[in-house]
Amino acid sequence: MKTYRKELWFETKQRRELINITASVSDCLQESGIKEGILLCNAMHITASVFINDDESGLHQDIEEWLEGLAPEKPYSRYRHNGYEDNADAHLKRTVMGREVVVAVTAGKLDLGPWEQIFYGEFDGKRRKRVLVKIIGS
Question: What is the number of other CB atoms lying within 10 angstroms of the CB of residue 89?
Fold first, then answer.
């Protein structure tokens, strides 16, 4: 049994962005040398998410609008959390989108469905944040 750990770092230019990280995660898998096992990929910050979905721009807009409808950024005064920071909406968006994904590793590849891609969702950006990739297998 082997294990592998790597951190991927991001610093977005906007407050909210969805970034396709499938290629970076695949690179980690190749580096690991693991052919069969499980890959965990998780956001290490409470205002960011890792999730799996289709890489289609219309869907990305729909996700943004849907999340903004559920937890609008403004007015900041609507949230009790917003005192020191103005990011309560980002915490709620992360709660909805989730913290991590687990993907099977088969024959040295990510065992994803035909349209599945791995995304980093940033909801309170413009600062350095990280994603953990942990792979266990043989």
Answer: 25
Residues 6 or more apart whose Cβ sits within 8 Å of residue 56: none
Beta bridge partners of 102: 40
Q: How far apart are alpha carbons 14 and 37 in whole angstroms?
A: 35
Q: Do strands 109-110 and 117-122 pair parallel, antiparallel, or not at all (unpaired)?
A: unpaired
Say which DSSP state 35 is in. Answer: -
Q: Which residue has the tokens 């970034």?
A: 19
Can you say how many angstroms the Cα of residue 124 is from the centroid of all Cα atoms in its chain? Answer: 13
pLDDT in tens, 90-117: 999 999 999 999 999 999 999 999 999 9
Strand partners, 119: 20, 51
The Cα–Cα gap between 128 and 74 comes to 23
- The answer on pLDDT for 84 being more than 90 is no
Residue type at position 50: V
Domain annotation for the chain: domains and CATH numbers: 2-137 (2.60.120.460)
C-alpha span between 99 and 57 (Å, rounded): 22
